[in-house]
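Quick one, probably user error.
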């Protein structure tokens, strides 16, 4: 349980599912369902992504152990049941195996995942301590696994970039909200996050701008592109983001920010499952084809 908590196994499962659903419904809708699911190259890319992400959570846990003890004491005590030596060993083993797996696909995949591993380490070691930059890099790293399958299928449809923009903005909101909830630990460990350097009011203003900016990709997805019944998800998003915005300006303590953070996590997870709404008929058609 401790190891599962360290590598955030539940997050990895959601990302794996999201990669497959994105491949099936957005990146490769013209390919038979069975061929996508049983594609060995896609399986290796997803498996390598999972390994790198798990390693990323381990190294992030390693660097943030003192801060997390303040912000999340119960989870940290569970995580500490696994020794630091075991965590570091797992980090190197997972990254090594991920690169080896990537070599099965191509040399470019090896380069891609090697850069991804370096980016995660650089973020955990240095960049996360800087305001705005840390939030942006964290959000970019979070959507990088989807770029892996995006590059594999070489689908450059505009709608993909619109979906990616929406996801990036939601992830930025999540990172900024998480910083508000982690203010006490960040101050104690001298992390230069936006709330620490510029104050909570500035953070709320930036999050408000991000919410308004998220309305742009939502508008295009609802009016320009064909997204099937997934339009229901984006209408729900508009309602939830409106509630989120109002609650944000009334929030004052950690418990409030944790609640807001969980709301954004719900939007992200719900978005993963709502991908199937793009074309419900496609599921039956492609199974029978």
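Nope, works fine. Designed sequence:
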């Amino acid at each position: 349980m401790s190891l599962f908590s360290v590598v955030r196994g539940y997050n990895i499962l959601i990302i794996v599912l999201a990669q497959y659903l994105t491949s099936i419904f957005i990146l490769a809708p013209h390919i038979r369902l069975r061929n996508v699911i049983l594609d060995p190259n896609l399986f290796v890319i997803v498996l390598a992504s999972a390994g790198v992400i798990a390693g990323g959570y381990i190294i992030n846990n390693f660097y943030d152990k003192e801060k997390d003890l303040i912000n999340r004491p119960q989870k940290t005590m569970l995580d500490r049941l696994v020794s630091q030596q075991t965590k570091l060993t797992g980090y190197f083993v997972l990254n090594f195996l991920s690169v080896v797996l990537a070599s099965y696909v191509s040399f470019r995949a090896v380069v891609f995942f090697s850069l991804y591993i370096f980016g995660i380490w650089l973020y955990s070691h240095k960049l996360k301590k800087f305001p705005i930059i840390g939030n942006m890099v964290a959000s970019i790293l979070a959507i990088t696994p989807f770029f892996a399958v995006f590059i594999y299928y070489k689908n450059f449809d505009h709608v993909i970039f619109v979906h990616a923009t929406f996801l990036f903005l939601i992830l930025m909101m999540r990172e900024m909200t998480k910083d508000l909830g982690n203010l006490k630990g960040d101050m104690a460990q001298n992390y230069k996050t936006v709330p620490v350097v510029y104050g909570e009011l500035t953070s709320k203003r930036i999050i408000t701008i991000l919410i308004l900016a998220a309305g742009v990709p939502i508008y295009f997805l609802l009016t320009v592109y064909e997204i099937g019944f997934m339009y229901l998800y984006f209408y729900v998003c508009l309602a939830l983001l409106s509630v989120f915005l109002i609650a944000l300006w009334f929030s004052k303590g950690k418990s409030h920010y944790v609640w807001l953070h969980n709301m954004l996590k719900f939007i992200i997870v719900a978005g993963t499952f709502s991908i199937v709404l793009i074309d419900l008929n496609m599921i039956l058609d492609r199974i029978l084809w």
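Residues 40-63 form the longest helix (24 residues).
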